[in-house]
């Protein structure tokens, strides 16, 4: 008997009228359609509710729920709060896979089938994604810098058993980094695949903000501090982004976000064993590279993984 391929999408959104139609169209045309798509309208004041109502009327597997308005757009903890508001509307334990999906993406039509196929081929693969790119100045196609060892937050596709094992997402800015490290800590693996058939367009560049891209980059730096990232590793990471738009200022904003949080001694993630693992991995990566350091962590924790 072939394995079940039932997957659930949950999409928090607020004022996405400028982007969401491309996402809605790309999902409704998928070669492997979701069993259910829960879209959470998190207080939209633009045309988002009308657009969602139109698609829900035409597709009985799209369910729109409205979350009480918090009065402003919120990233990080606010997005995950809205995600759980939607997730808790259904019995998600009956699905084989689940995905937190943003509504500012244009996905290739075989995207979810491609992810499921790769997860069926590798039972230890707990979370997966493709690689995002965005359109830069003059129409240039610019890849977002994502390591192969991470699945991306805007389309965070999980094997349901793995999602349950890690305890889901934390409600903080760096939720989409913490989850990948927790996945490896428990013996699973996660990947973003560079395969051309899984590349997708991010209509709003990663690390941007409703205020400015520099605010978004500073927020990312705080998130790295919250996650417990090693300072030397994060500094090296910022230096590696000096050639990535918005170049020097973007890298400096990220670095300052970390330093500012450290100087103010802001709270960090409370899983101290996970922070120890993250820092050891990052320090090792500075010496041997992320690919080898990741492989070493996965090998060291493989005994913790159990097949169904």
| Count of DSSP H/I helices | 11
CATH topology title of the largest domain: Spore Coat Polysaccharide Biosynthesis Protein SpsA, Chain A
> In one word, what is the shape?
globular
Catalogue the unreliable spans.
Answer: none
Given helix and strand content, the structural type is alpha/beta
CATH homologous superfamily heading of the largest domain: Spore Coat Polysaccharide Biosynthesis Protein SpsA, Chain A
Strand line-up of the largest beta sheet: 3-2-1-4-9-6-10
Termini separation comes to: 15 Å
Nearest-angstrom radius of gyration?
Answer: 19 Å
Total tally of structural domains:
2
| Helix content class | 40-55%
Any idea what the CATH architecture of the largest domain is? Alpha-Beta Complex
How much beta, percentage-wise?
15-25%
Q: What is the N-to-C order of secondary-structure elements (H for helix, E for strand)?
A: EHEHEHEEHEEEEHHEEHHHHH
Question: Keywords for this structure?
Answer:
alpha/beta; Spore Coat Polysaccharide Biosynthesis Protein SpsA, Chain A; 2 domains; four-stranded mixed sheet; 11 strands; 42% helix
């Amino acid at each position: 008997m072939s394995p079940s391929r039932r997957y659930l999408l949950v999409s928090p959104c607020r004022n996405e009228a400028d982007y969401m139609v491309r996402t809605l169209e790309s999902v409704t045309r998928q070669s492997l359609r979701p069993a259910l798509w829960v879209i959470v309208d998190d207080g939209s004041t633009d045309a988002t509710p009308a657009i969602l109502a139109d698609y829900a009327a035409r597709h009985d597997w799209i369910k729109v729920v409205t979350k009480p308005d918090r009065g402003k757009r919120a990233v990080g903890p606010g997005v995950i709060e809205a995600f759980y508001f939607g997730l808790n509307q259904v019995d998600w334990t009956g699905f084989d896979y689940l995905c937190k999906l943003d509504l500012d993406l244009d996905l290739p039509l075989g995207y979810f089938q491609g992810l499921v196929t790769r997860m069926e081929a590798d039972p230890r693969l707990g979370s997966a994604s493709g690689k995002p790119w965005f359109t830069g100045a003059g129409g240039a196609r610019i890849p977002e810098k994502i390591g192969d060892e991470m699945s991306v937050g805007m389309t965070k596709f999980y094997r349901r058993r793995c999602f349950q094992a890690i305890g889901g997402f934390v409600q903080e800015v760096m939720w989409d980094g913490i989850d990948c490290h927790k996945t490896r800590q428990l013996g699973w693996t996660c990947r973003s695949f560079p395969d051309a058939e899984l590349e997708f367009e991010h209509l709003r560049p990663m690390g941007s903000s409703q205020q400015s891209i520099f605010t978004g980059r500073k927020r990312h730096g705080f998130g790295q501090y919250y996650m417990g990232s090693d300072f030397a590793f994060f500094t090296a990471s910022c230096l590696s982004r000096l050639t990535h738009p918005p170049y020097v200022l973007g890298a400096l904003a990220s670095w300052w976000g970390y330093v500012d949080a450290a100087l103010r001694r802001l709270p960090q993630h409370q899983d101290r064993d996970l922070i120890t693992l993250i820092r050891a991995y990052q320090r090792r990566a500075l010496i041997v590279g992320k690919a080898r350091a990741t492989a070493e962590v996965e090998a060291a924790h493989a005994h913790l993984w159990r097949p169904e």
